[in-house]
Specification:
The structure is a single chain. This protein is α/β, with parallel strands linked by helices. It is built from ten helices and 15 strands. It has helices at 2-15, 51-57, 86-93, 112-119, 130-136, 138-146, 175-187, 195-201, 263-273, 285-293, and strands at 28-33, 36-42, 69-74, 97-102, 123-126, 150-158, 190-194, 216-220, 239-243, 248-250, 253-257, 278-283, 299-305, 325-329, 332-338. The strands form two sheets. A ten-stranded mixed β-sheet has the order 10-11-9-8-7-12-6-13-15-14, sandwiched between helices. α3 (86-93) runs parallel beside α4 (112-119).
């Protein structure tokens, strides 16, 4: 019970860096001596110190470390990257005990960190709040296991299941759900729309409702028909344009060629190559339906306005799933769906 309490604090710390650690996972760590937390840390940004190192560096009296337990939400790394292996640092210090939330399913780690620490004679306990710790990094694990980004479908619809009225931009969500969407964008790596949405709505796809990072913007534009003076091409964020004509890399805009016959699959392969770990698909209806029909989604978020009847326009996707939960935002309801399947074997698929 005590281990769970401390691991929950690790998860809280890890979440502080949501959206900032790509391509690395979210990790939190604390150090406990005689029932008192003497150090805390979390991984803040890729290329910077890992959670365990930040926790160790926060301890004022280093003499206490050998008599302490270090808690970490994800198995300590065992390989050299931009930073040395955390497992080696833990061994060097000689902690009395190491408590791990979830094992790191990345093939460079996957039990190696735990084994190194155990072989050094340090007690290791793992699997504490394992499901919560795995859920914390479902984007990271999906990326490495399924070789594609974690995919979130998102759209707004009226009571009669239309996304707009008479195929023109229509306000369905309210100011509260708009803020929710901007927080979502701030938390995810990239955001995708199709040609029709770009032409009809001319969106900027930024987080203008709050301060924070903008996601990488992804545009499906097979024939490169969206004008270059549209908002999606401004300098507020990087933009990747998936098309069937050519490749071109120019400052903040990249044109990426994929085949017409296998468009979605090839696009996801390219995103994996570019280390894009999570993706919000914002529409329109045709693009969303392609992902639904191919069962290529991990979460879906539907904003519904039960008081709005539009009668004609772009039909919302056909989506016959049961929601896990819903939240009320004044006259809007947000429904949440999950299709996330965690692979915990060693197959990497």
């Amino acid at each position: 019970m005590e281990d769970e309490l401390y691991m929950r604090r690790c998860i809280e710390l890890a979440k502080k860096a949501t959206g900032n650690t790509y391509p690395n996972p979210l990790v939190g760590s604390i150090i406990v001596h005689n029932g008192k937390i003497i150090g805390e840390g979390f991984h803040q940004k890729a290329g910077e110190a890992h959670a365990e190192i930040n926790a160790i560096n926060s301890v004022e009296n280093r003499e206490l470390l050998k008599e302490s337990t270090i808690y970490v939400s994800l198995e300590p790394c065992a390989h050299y990257g931009k930073t040395p292996p955390c497992a080696l640092k833990i061994i060097e210090i000689g902690f009395k005990r190491v408590v791990i939330g979830a094992m790191d399913l990345h093939d460079k780690v996957n039990g190696k960190g735990k084994k190194m620490i155990e072989e050094a004679g340090i007690e290791v306990v793992s699997g504490i709040l394992e499901n919560e710790c795995l859920d914390l990094n479902k984007r990271f694990f999906t990326f490495h296991q399924k070789k594609r980004p974690y995919i979130i479908l998102k759209w707004a619809e009226s009571a009669d299941h239309f996304m707009d009225q008479d195929f023109k931009p229509t306000q369905i969500s309210n100011s509260l759900t708009k803020q929710f969407v901007h927080r979502l964008r701030n938390s995810e790596h990239a955001i995708l729309i199709g040609t029709m949405t770009a032409m009809r709505d001319n969106p900027s796809l930024t987080t203008r409702e709050l301060t924070g990072r903008n996601p990488i913007r992804l545009l499906i534009d097979s024939d490169l028909s969206v004008p270059r003076d549209f908002h999606i091409f401004n300098k507020e964020a990087e933009t990747y344009v998936f098309n069937t004509i050519k490749n071109l890399d120019e400052s903040h805009i990249q044109l990426i060629k994929v085949s017409k016959e296998n468009f979605i699959a090839e696009m996801l392969e390219k995103l994996h190559e570019k280390q894009i770990q999570s993706l919000i698909v914002e529409g329109g209806g045709k693009v969303l339906q392609q992902f639904i029909d191919a069962d290529l989604w991990d979460e879906a978020i539907i904003i519904k306005n039960p008081n709005l009847v539009l009668k004609n326009g772009t039909k919302a996707p056909t989506f016959n799933k049961m929601s896990e939960r819903s939240e009320q935002y004044r006259d809007n309801v947000i429904e949440f769906y999950s299709n996330f399947k965690q692979n915990t074997d060693d197959s990497g698929v």
